[in-house]
Design a protein that fits this description.
By secondary structure, this protein is of the alpha/beta class. It has helices spanning about 15-30, 60-75, 95-105, 210-220, 220-235, 235-245, 255-260, and strands at about 5-10, 35-40, 50-55, 80-85, 90, 110-115, 125-130, 150, 155, 165-170, 170, 175, 190-195, 195-200. It has one domain: Spore Coat Polysaccharide Biosynthesis Protein SpsA, Chain A. The chain is built from seven helices and 14 strands. The protein is globular, with a radius of gyration of 18 Å. The termini are far apart.
């Protein structure tokens, strides 16, 4: 039995650049794994080297439950020690990330980012890591409207993650991965979660979030900072992520200089 099954989802604007960046980082930092993709209105020809589990059409938000339910069904019918669901713009960024994650999780059943930077209090499946012994248990609903939860502003919101159980039979089962950037190039985009995963955010759609109006009221160059992040990660993902993690802070001096000159 292999250690890990990774399935990544790609949306209509997920370019081959995200695919190449993600596969490079996965291959560099992960061992003994299988990799597959699920596509939403994406040309299959760009994924000839990947196992394609399926595809959906139409409005992405409406298609997400079908996409995630099909992926999770595949998880439950294919035996691996662990499972990882990724967004196309999300990937591991350090050696031995899985060994460390398994250790810090302890007896927790799954790990996922909790995007407090988006004012959320619930998990998000951009990097959903599930221990194999718990994959068949009824802890995930991918219906976006199955449950409403209060965010950090006290607003009632729903999302894919509001249907995820964080407790089961009285046991807390979620290990939260929160934003851990040493430097922030944007308040919402270009996040490092748990010092293990980079998630660009909105890599296959217009970068608008529930927190956008909140951050726009606080950050004067919110949109400009977002464009810089996209350009930097596409141009030099290693240097950009090293900078966000505070790794030496000299990997790319020009990028670092621009960051401090234009920082938000």
């Amino acid at each position: 039995m292999k250690n890990l099954l990774i399935v990544s989802t790609f949306g209509p604007d997920a370019t081959a650049d995200w695919k190449d960046i993600q596969q490079c980082f996965i291959d560099r930092y992960t061992t003994n794994y299988d990799y597959a993709v699920y596509l939403h209105e994406v040309e299959e020809s760009a994924f000839d080297d990947c196992k394609i589990l399926g595809r959906t059409e139409g409005v992405l938000l409406h298609a997400l439950p079908e996409m995630f339910n099909n992926i999770y069904k595949y998880f439950r019918t294919h035996e691996y020690e662990n499972y990882l669901l990724l967004d196309s713009d999300c990937f591991p960024i350090k050696h031995n990330w899985q060994k460390k994650l398994n250790k810090v999780m302890g007896d927790k059943w799954y790990a996922a980012p909790v995007r407090t930077d988006n004012l959320d209090t619930f998990p998000h499946p951009c990097a959903l890591y599930i221990k194999g012994e718990h994959v068949a248990k009824p802890i995930f609903s991918f219906d976006r409207k199955v449950n409403f939860m209060q965010n950090l502003r006290g607003e009632e919101v729903f999302d894919i993650g509001t249907g995820f159980k964080t407790e089961f039979d009285g046991q807390h089962i979620l290990f939260p991965l929160v934003r851990s950037n040493f430097l922030n190039a944007h308040p919402m985009l270009a996040a490092i979660y748990g010092d293990m995963f980079y998630h660009h955010g909105a890599g296959s759609r217009t970068p608008f979030f529930r927190s956008t109006s909140y951050w726009r009221s606080l950050v004067s160059d919110y949109e400009e900072a977002g464009q810089r992040c996209f350009d930097w990660v596409q141009e030099d993902p290693d240097g950009f992520i090293a900078m966000l993690r505070g790794e030496g802070l000299v990997h790319n001096p020009e990028m670092l200089k621009e960051f401090f000159l234009t920082g938000w």
